[in-house]
Amino acid sequence: MSDDEQAGGGFTLDLSDDVREMRDWVHDFAASVIRPAAAEWDEREETPWPILEEAAKIGLYSIEFFAEQWFEPTGLGTPVAFEEIYWGDAGIGLSLTGSCLAAVAVSSNGTPEQMGEWLPQMFGGPGDVKLGAFCSSEPDAGSDVGSIKTRAVYHEATDEWVLNGTKAWATNGGIADVHVVVASVDPALGSRGQASFIVPPGTKGLSQGQKFRKHGVRASHTAEVVLDDVRVPGRCLVGGKEKLDARLARLAEGGAAGEQAAMKTFEASRPTVAAMAVGVARAAVEFATEYATERVQFGKPIGQNQGVAFMLADMAASVDAARLLTWRAAWMARHGRKFNRAEGSMSKLFAGETAVRVTEQAIQILGGNGYTREYPAERWHRDAKIFTIFEGTSEIQRMIIGRALTGLPVR
Ligand SMILES: Cc1cc2nc3c(=O)[nH]c(=O)nc-3n(C[C@H](O)[C@H](O)[C@H](O)COP(=O)(O)OP(=O)(O)OC[C@H]3O[C@@H](n4cnc5c(N)ncnc54)[C@H](O)[C@@H]3O)c2cc1C
Q1: Ligand 1 within 6 A of 58 CB?
Q2: pLDDT digit string (tens) for 43-90?
Q3: Ligand 1 atom nearest to 101, measured from its CA
Q4: For atom 6 of ligand 1, which residue has the closest CA?
Q5: Which of 31, 140, 202, 206 would you label with 232, given CA atoms 20 to 30 Å apart?
Q6: Tell me, what DSSP letter sits at residue 161?
Q7: What is the C-alpha to C-alpha distance for residues 319 and 316, in angstroms, rounded to an integer?
Q8: Is the pTM of this model over 0.85?
């Protein structure tokens, strides 16, 4: 039996009926609700609560929808859904999907009880929309996840963890109902001595610090989160104390200790971030193509010039290539395949850089119009840049791929 067969089926580009139906449904919402609201919320630089509410009403903003796509048997449910949402708008898209990162942090390392208790509280429901935030990055620990300074100290007498530190760049930070915080339980162990903690709604000591005013994805809230003697019950340690103690004991004996908490979350979500970038890039290619067939200069559509048509050809080919890498990685993740060549990072790297390049080319094709806020291309370009920065910068992705290919400790 081949590896493919053992893994539960070969890769196919034929989407299942369920995924196709879901894609059309999400696309409808993206075209009729998300895209028309995009410019307004980009200017307002706020979480678009009414859009979240609309999405909750139809079941799109819900733990059920995202869980269904995450566990969809072919692995393509999540990338297909995210591409459509981000085709609508990346800022609103990040508000609609930001809670998923916190949900993945709990579901990839947590107990079934933790998932049952906290995931629904990260999404809420119609009339009572809620948010989750995943807080790993710090002012002095971005790419260098191992240097996280936030400390978690266990108090046995009360079975509580006490968290202290400052988190930077948290999507939904400070406005979320549930925060998942990565902290060091044993600083001497660096990244291997870290764990994730659930901070329940209304916990004293957690507050929002600076809210960042950004270049793009401005309809998504990004802020510092300050943790000042935040006390959470023992059951809020993701995965539980027994698992953590066993891991630390293995480390003390010099054994393997599994993947560190934050890296595991990032790994599972990389093809998903790639799919966001593909959505933005596709929007730009479609818009530029239509513009090039309509805009007339020198008596003919500008698309009739090779200079423009070749640019469109390169743009379309890169977007399709980015999607193929994304679907491959998502399929591999779903079928438990090992990422021996860092295929997840490849998808995120290529899709992120494609989005930046093709949105810039779209501005070029739109000329002066592309440079104004009357047209969406400049917003797409500003939004696209985030995909080469968050969830591991392009340089970090290259480092991971380089290490996987060479087996060398590339720094
Ligand atoms: C809008 C937004 C939303 C975010 N949301 C979240 C969130 O929800 N949760 C969260 O935890 N974080 C979040 N982040 C943080 C994001 O993941 C970090 O910004 C990112 O990991 C980079 O870290 P840094 O900003 O500290 O940059 P740095 O790590 O300081 O990097 C600066 C530059 O140096 C390069 N560099 C660093 N190390 C190396 C190396 N070894 N080799 C080569 N080049 C290197 C980088 O590639 C980059 O170009 C968000 C950020 C933004 C902007």
Answers
A1: no
A2: 999 999 999 999 999 999 999 999 999 999 999 999 999 999 999 999
A3: 8
A4: 170
A5: 140
A6: E
A7: 5
A8: yes
